[in-house]
Design goal:
With 91 residues, the protein is an alpha/beta fold. It has one domain. It has two helices and four strands. It is globular, with a radius of gyration of 13 Å. The mean pLDDT is 93.
Length: 91
């Protein structure tokens, strides 16, 4: 168990960097490349769901992410993942 439930965004991302892990999150704060520059981490995928998401919406967004990962690496990039679409921001 990582015990990061009360960690700040910066602490969480620092842990991911230290462990060379990408972050997959619903937290839209991580979608700002000026605050969290992609070149400084192992990749962030922000899942953007409809305002009142269902389990199916989450499953479809994750499916979109998995499909995108088959074709390229998330490393040092910011991905905004919506159902059926991935927008990639890389430095």
């Amino acid at each position: 168990m990582q015990a990061l439930q009360s960690a700040t965004d910066r602490e969480l991302l620092a842990r991911c960097v230290a462990e060379d892990r990408a972050l997959v999150t619903l937290d839209l704060d991580f979608a700002n490349p000026l605050v969290f520059p992609p070149a400084r981490h192992s990749g962030v995928a922000v899942l953007r769901l409809p305002r009142k998401p269902t389990h199916t919406d989450l499953d479809q967004a994750i499916g979109t992410l998995v499909g995108a990962l088959r074709g390229q690496s998330l490393g040092q990039q910011l991905w905004i993942v919506e159902i059926g679409r991935v927008r990639v921001y890389s430095p």
